Amino acid sequence: MGRAAFCSPATVPWRPALASRSPWRCAGRVTGRWRRARTAGRPATVRMATGPEEPPTSTTPSEAQRGARDESLRQLLGMRGARVEKNVWKVRLQLMKPVTWIPLVWGVVCGAFASGAYQWNDPSDIVRLLLCMVLSGPLLAGYTQTLNDWYDKDIDAVNEPYRPIPSGAIGEGQVVAQILVLLFAGLGLAYGLDVWQGHSVPYVLSVAALGSFLAYIYSAPPLKLKQNGWLGNYALGASYISLPWWAGQALFADHGVDWKTAVLTLFYSLAGLGIAIINDFKSIEGDRQLGLASLPVVYGVDRAKWICVGMIDTFQLLVAAILAGIGEQKYAAALLGLILPQVYLQWKFFLPDPMKNDVKYQAAAQPFLVLGILVTALAVGHHGPL
Q1: What contacts 256, CB < 8 A, 6 or more positions away?
Q2: pLDDT of amino acid 26
Q3: Residue 382 confidence (pLDDT)
């Protein structure tokens, strides 16, 4: 959903492959002479210099192939720097931003752990878990991302004009059809999982419907939560952390998700709000032009960066304190051990220059946050209902 995700390459710009220099050194202004040109690791060769030589600008075939593969991968995953694709099915996949599915799939796994009822050696449980991953990732995250691109096409025309809709790579009717197909396929699968699990209350369908509604009001007018830096980023954090956790836990736990566990995951969503703020730094100019009140626009870069790290650290520490308070001290200590590297990386990369080092910080720090979510889920599964 939105521009952000956890270390999501939908929010992490990949630089195009840089052409390396030619293996030949420039021979300079030499006429009618033989001159040696040597490259590291190669035998000496001889060529005739007949006049002034221009610096080589072409790339080797292997470099061109690597660059094409990089562009193709970025296109398929929905990353920045992707080439404009003409194949409509590849464009559809790009709209769904597959790389953003990863944190939701991870959240489903954490929810299954937290249920305390998932059996890893039960084939039927494995199939149900995989289907729940498809529900949260390709279907509903794909719906969310396509919907967001639809309502975000004016912003993308400023910030990311190569995106499929502003570039004209896909028609408007095709986009609307994709949104509806993904939405109803997701809701149908959620109901099917409830029936298969024998739920008297459609827990999974309820979570899926809530997430779908949240995705709509995040992107679409009149509410369009993304226009507000606080509400939009919190909706984003909840969608990527709480909702997939709830789906995984509700699928396997007979009692669904108890309110105390729900609150615990919402604390993690507040940490996710901080992560979402990171992704707003790169879009300050476009947001300002379009009147979006992102936190870097409202508070400025210096204040917003402190709000960001404060949210990330404070709510993770609060979760660790809760785990210690319910008697899960070992898990609390493990979680604390995963928070401290994040604090170090904030001081090393993010706080000195959040606009330059946002990608570097996320790549280095977010694995620790993601593992912390798993540790918390294991603690809940070990402890039982809070």
Answers
A1: 201, 203, 249, 250
A2: 36
A3: 92
Determine the pLDDT at residue 71: 59
Chain-centroid distance of CA 111 in Å reads: 19
199, 190 Cβ separation under 8 angstroms: no
- In the structure, what pLDDT confidence band is assigned to residue 18 with cuts at 50, 70 and 90? very low
Q: Which residue, chain included where needed, has tokens 């507040």?
A: 270
The three-class DSSP label of residue 209 is helix
Report how far residue 266's alpha carbon sits from residue 53's, in angstroms, rounded to the nearest whole number.
64
**What's the confidence (pLDDT) of residue 83?**
58
What average pLDDT does range 160-178 have in this prediction? 89
In this prediction, residue 69 carries a pLDDT of 60
Lowest mean pLDDT among 1-5, 66-70, 278-282: 1-5
End-to-end CA separation in angstroms for the chain = 29
d(CA 204, CA 108): 11
Token pair 């691109």 is at which residue?
149
Preceding peptide of 13 cis, ω within 30°: no
How many angstroms separate the CA atoms of 378 and 343, rounded? 23
Residue 69 DSSP label: H
Q: Are 39 and 24 in contact (CB under 8 A)?
A: yes
For residue 255, what pLDDT is reported? 80
The DSSP 8-state label assigned to residue 84 in this structure reads P
CA distances to 79, 100, 140, 188, 191 from 5, rounded to whole Å, are 12, 6, 14, 25, 26
In the chain, where the domains are located: 72-383
Whether residue 155 is predicted with pLDDT greater than 80 in this model: the reply is no
Q: How far is CA 206 from CA 143, 288, 304, in A?
A: 17, 36, 35
**Residue 312 above 90 pLDDT?**
yes
Burial of 185 (0-12, 13-18, 19+ CB in 10 A): middle
DSSP 282: G
**What's the CATH code, domain 72-383?**
1.10.600
